[in-house]
Amino acid sequence: MSEIDLSTVEVSSTADARGSACPGPLLEAKKGIGKVKVGEIIEIYSNDSGTRTDIPAWSKKVGHEYLGMLSVDGYDKHFVRRKK
Q1: Domain count across the chain
Q2: At 55, which helix (H) or strand (E)?
Q3: pLDDT tens track for 20-63
Q4: What residue numbers bound the domain in which 60 lies?
Q5: Active site residue 22
Q6: Burial 6-18 (b: 16+ CB within 10 A, else e)
Q7: Which of 6, 22, 25, 83 has its CA 20 to 30 A from that of 46?
């Protein structure tokens, strides 16, 4: 897998789970992934530290591609490509 510049990734949908504790961000990601087509990218905003392990693990478990995370202005942006 090649390195992706996450700051320039084109996202198709955003799930804003800032202010939500576990499992809120994961639930928002699950709802949000259904709003994008296969091959498109969803970004999940979260300021819950558990999301840093939850989103990559969920992505792998259900067969999507976790692209990575950017930390900005006190929260994280997680990027997931829908694979199925």
Answers
A1: 1
A2: helix 51-62
A3: 988 889 999 999 999 999 999 999 999 999 999 999 999 999 99
A4: 9-81
A5: yes
A6: beeeebebebebb
A7: 83
Is the separation of the CB atoms in 27 and 57 below 8 Å?
Answer: no
pTM over 0.90: yes
Residue 4 located in a structural domain: no
Which residue's entry shows tokens 């969920």? Answer: 58
Between CA 79 and CA 43, with CA 17 as vertex, the angle to 5 degrees is 15
Instruction: Confirm whether 24 is domain-assigned.
Output: yes
Residues in the chain, overall count: 84
Q: Report pLDDT for 2.
A: 53
**What backbone torsions phi and psi does residue 63 show, to the nearest 5 degrees?**
90, 20
Active-site residue (options: 22, 36, 62, 67) = 22
